[in-house]
Amino acid sequence: MGSAGLEIKEVECLIIGAGFGAITLLHRLLKEGFDARVYEKGSGFGGIWQSFGKISPSGSDMPGGKSSGGTLLM
């Protein structure tokens, strides 16, 4: 456990920010078999997509991932 009481997990690839490019990179890394994670400080993901309304009917959900307290974990 870290000093803030958070579990520390080692990953091969850590992507900061969940914009369009980050989601594309995550998809490619996972497809190649890497252990990759995306962390987003905001309440959702998609970067500029947010300007065009909701990405999915449920708002910020995405297959294979979940939005939790401002951090997107995939």
TrEMBL record:
SUPFAM superfamilies attached to this UniProt entry: FAD/NAD(P)-binding domain (SSF51905)
GO molecular function terms noted in the UniProt entry: monooxygenase activity
One Pfam match, by short name?
A: NAD_binding_8
Q: Which family does it belong to?
A: Belongs to the FAD-binding monooxygenase family.
> PANTHER family given for it?
L-ORNITHINE N(5)-MONOOXYGENASE-RELATED
**Could you tell me which residues belong to the region Disordered?**
55-74
Q: Which cofactor does it need?
A: FAD
Keyword vocabulary terms for this entry: FAD, Flavoprotein, Monooxygenase, NADP, Oxidoreductase
This chain's source organism reads: Extremus antarcticus
Q: What is the name of the protein in this document?
A: Uncharacterized protein
